[in-house]
Design a protein that fits this description.
alpha/beta; Rossmann fold; six-stranded parallel β-sheet; 6 strands
């Protein structure tokens, strides 16, 4: 059974480009990339993992997402954040804290450039967990 993931972006070209790279690396995942202005809270219900990326801190289109994450418990989900600048990465780290999702250090793609080795390393644990049989 494939894992499900959603990648929520601010819709900018650089972030969408990174989202596509992430999607390409996640074999065995059913992935949906969605701009934050089209995101609804129920999009998170069927997913095992969610990614959030934005170019700049506090984009207007993230208001709903930010509010929702402050009021929901997603402790059973994995979250990964990514950006092209440190301020935005810190902002994303702060907005996912309250939801208690399992997070790691975010992916920083300076100048929108993603090192393929760094991307694979960043996703490694997530990929390994998806291929390990789950015991119930």
């Amino acid at each position: 059974m494939s894992k499900k993931a959603i990648i929520i972006t601010d819709g900018t070209e650089s972030i969408n480009s990174i989202a596509k790279l992430i999607s390409g690396e996640l074999t065995g995942f059913n992935i949906k990339i969605i701009p934050s202005d089209q995101f609804v809270g129920t999009d998170l219900l069927p997913v095992d993992t969610f990614f959030i990326g934005c170019e700049n801190a506090k984009p207007a289109s993230f208001a709903y997402l930010e509010e929702m994450l402050s009021h929901i418990n997603l402790a059973s989900r994995t979250c990964r954040i990514f950006s092209v600048n440190e301020k935005a990465l810190k902002y994303l780290d702060n907005i996912v804290k309250d939801c208690e999702a399992d997070t790691t250090e975010g992916l920083l793609a300076l100048n929108g450039e993603v090192n393929n080795t760094a991307l694979k390393s960043w996703l490694k644990v997530l990929i390994e967990e998806s291929t390990t049989p789950q015991h119930e």
